[in-house]
Amino acid sequence: MRRLLLLALVSISCKQQPPAPKASAGPQVREIAVTGKGFEPARVEVTPGQPVVLRFTRKVAETCADAVDVQGDSVRHMLPLDTPVEVKLSAPPSGELAFACPMKMIHGAVVVVAQ
Hints:
Layout: H1 2-16, E1 28-35, E2 38-40, E3 43-46, E4 51-58, E5 67-70, E6 76-78, E7 85-90, E8 96-100, E9 107-112
Parallel strand pairs: 1-4, 3-9
Antiparallel strand pairs: 1-2, 4-7, 5-6, 5-8, 8-9
């Protein structure tokens, strides 16, 4: 009889616990290389409203893209040769965010796509 009562209490207590919170998948990371052709890829797709990390790595010494300006970010991010630089942002609900070298000759975009 005690065993049945104990099993019933264990069963009830297990049912009353809230579900475990879902683990966050973390930010969307997009790798972008600066090459002789410019930003590769020049267009990166992201999910709306989610955190995003753009990881820029400059692969060439001779380029005007030794820094990057991201639309909506007041900081100019310097891009040292062969050193990844992470730019953190939040994807808007829709549309695009532009990024470019300081001279605006080399450019690209973060494009929000519904999933």
